[in-house]
User: Which sequence fits this backbone?
């Protein structure tokens, strides 16, 4: 995949997930770790806005390198929510558990993808 296409595909994915935080916030509210101060809805909207900001930065060649680094950091920052989701889904049906558990290892290739976009983008 061409470098720009890779960045644009990552941006598209972030646009979809970021938009979903606003269109269907309830599932995201449920995975906000309990120890985080403030309203889960606030964190849902903040993380959705961060995903959209990363997507916009990735889409623009001038900000792509910074956007890729921010994307990698964001994916690390939201990992505790994925852990909470996996723990909360332990007693659910197999399909639900599988979906929750699959999110955990998927973070690593996504982080790697963002870091590859950063590396491949000129300074």
Assistant:
């Amino acid at each position: 995949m061409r470098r720009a296409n890779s960045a644009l595909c990552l941006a598209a994915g972030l646009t979809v997930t970021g938009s979903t935080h606003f269109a269907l916030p309830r599932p995201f509210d449920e995975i906000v770790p309990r120890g985080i101060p403030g309203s889960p809805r606030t964190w849902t909207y903040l993380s959705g806005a961060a995903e959209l900001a990363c997507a916009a930065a990735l889409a623009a060649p001038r900000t792509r390198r910074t956007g890729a680094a921010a994307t990698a950091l964001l994916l690390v920052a939201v990992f505790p929510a994925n852990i909470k989701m996996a723990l909360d889904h332990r007693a659910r049906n197999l399909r639900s558990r599988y979906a929750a558990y699959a999110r955990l290892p998927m973070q690593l290739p996504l982080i790697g993808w963002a870091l590859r976009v950063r590396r491949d983008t000129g300074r």
Summary: Residues 3-120 form one domain. The two ends are 20 Å apart (CA to CA). Residues 60 and 71 are 14 Å apart (CA to CA).
